[in-house]
Specification:
Layout: H1 2-5, E1 8-9, E2 12-13, H2 14-21, H3 25-28, H4 34-46, H5 58-64, H6 72-79, H7 82-93, H8 99-109, H9 124-131, H10 136-148, H11 154-164, H12 167-173, H13 177-190, E3 201-207, H14 223-237, E4 240-246, E5 250-253, H15 261-269, H16 280-287, E6 294-299, H17 310-321, E7 327-332, E8 348-352, H18 358-366
Parallel strand pairs: 3-4, 3-6, 6-7, 7-8
Antiparallel strand pairs: 1-2, 4-5
Helix pairs in contact: 4-6, 8-9, 10-13, 14-15, 16-17
Length: 370
């Protein structure tokens, strides 16, 4: 496997190692394996294979090597060698263009990414075939790539989740938590293409109170982290997005699509906090004559409001801006029960709690599918 997987590492080839080590074939191999080892040594040094002796015509066999040089057992072992089958397959794949044949070879010989031609590494089917028996470290290292080509769907997504949550596998692979965190964050950024733009103008309003650091039930994700992740997708994909932070007052936030999750969270961690007034984003937009199609308010369970109710603030904004179909979404990520939206207004929605269905719910509401 390593002979085919790594033709060279760090500037050293197998040929270099053979030249320095001077291995003695007759001392290293059992007599019956001599011919098989000769072929493998030839591949290590020359990069190709000779035709197997049993597959040569009688005339070619006599020309290449006297028939008496190898025993019938040696030639039988060479003919049935799984190691030589692997080498022949890898050599044949160098110029293979048929995706189905590459997938078949991966499944038959347990090939890995390094065995494959570069042009095949953008194939969803190829990566899904690799993933089925991919070692933990390799999977983590390639999460971003697989996510970027949309290979992690259905059962393949489940394979990744199963491995990442298997304590035994993580322990055996000696995976450091930092490696997992970095790989998942890389995959997150590369998955943005899965969220097509809505071409709406957004105001994202973040509750910056201290309670936003609490965890969402059943997860290890904080309310602040979840709101940062959701907003970053739109900051990256949408043309018009402005962000504000609010508690009992409001501050404009400089977030952009090229920021990272950690940068957004660290920025919000430094902001002062107080009581939560969910009407402030619409009041601010009205005062500043901002033009937004959608207001998204991210909070935990604090849905307090001051003198003006949020739904009234949205109505006032619609009237003053002329954007009569402006929408309001309030996300209470740790709440179990609250009501801010006017149930008679199809342009307002409350989301109670948080799970993986929320991004699709947001998209469908904004685009009028709900």
């Amino acid at each position: 496997m390593h002979l085919t997987k790594y033709p060279q590492r760090g500037g050293w080839s197998h040929r270099d190692l053979f030249r320095l080590a001077h291995p003695k074939l007759k001392k290293e191999a059992l007599p019956e394996n001599l011919l098989e080892y000769e072929q493998l040594y030839h591949f290590a040094v020359k990069g190709d294979l000779k035709t197997r002796k049993r597959n040569l015509s009688k005339e070619d066999a006599e020309l290449e090597q006297p028939a008496s040089k190898y025993s019938a057992l040696q030639m039988d072992i060479e003919l049935g060698s799984r190691a030589l089958d692997l080498v022949e397959t890898v050599l044949a794949l160098k110029h293979e263009k048929d995706e189905a044949k590459v997938v078949e070879a991966i499944k038959k010989h347990n090939l890995v990414r390094e065995h494959l031609p570069t042009e095949m590494l953008n194939s969803v089917a190829v990566w899904q075939a690799l993933l089925e028996k991919m070692p933990m470290t390799a999977m983590i290292r390639n999460l971003g790539k697989m996510q970027s080509i949309d290979a992690l769907t259905g059962k393949y997504r489940d394979i990744v989740i199963s491995k990442l949550t298997n304590e035994g596998e993580l322990k055996r692979a000696k995976i450091h938590p930092i490696q997992i965190g970095q790989a998942l964050e890389d995959a997150f950024y590369k998955s943005f293409f899965n969220a097509p733009p809505t071409n709406k103008r957004y105001c994202f309003a973040f509750d910056v109170s201290g309670s936003m650091t609490c965890l969402i039930s059943g997860t290890m994700l904080s309310c602040r982290g979840a709101s940062a992740a959701l907003s970053l997708v739109s900051l990256k994909n949408e043309k018009t997005v402005e962000c504000v932070g609010f508690c009992d007052n409001l501050v404009e936030l400089p977030f952009r699509g090229d920021w990272t999750l950690s940068k957004i969270e660290e920025y919000m961690d430094r902001l002062p906090f107080g009581a939560t007034d969910c009407a402030l984003p619409m009041l601010w937009a009205k005062e500043k004559k901002k033009e937004f199609d959608v207001f998204v308010v991210y909070t935990d369970c604090e849905t307090y409001f001051g003198e003006v109710h949020p739904y009234q603030a949205l109505r006032d904004y619609r009237e003053s801006s002329g954007i009569t179909d402006a929408k309001l979404i309030v996300m209470g990520m740790t709440a179990t029960d609250f009501t801010i939206a006017d149930p008679e207004d199809a342009g307002m929605m409350d989301i109670v709690g948080f799970d993986s269905a929320v991004p699709t719910l947001l998209h469908d509401f904004v685009t009028g599918k709900l």
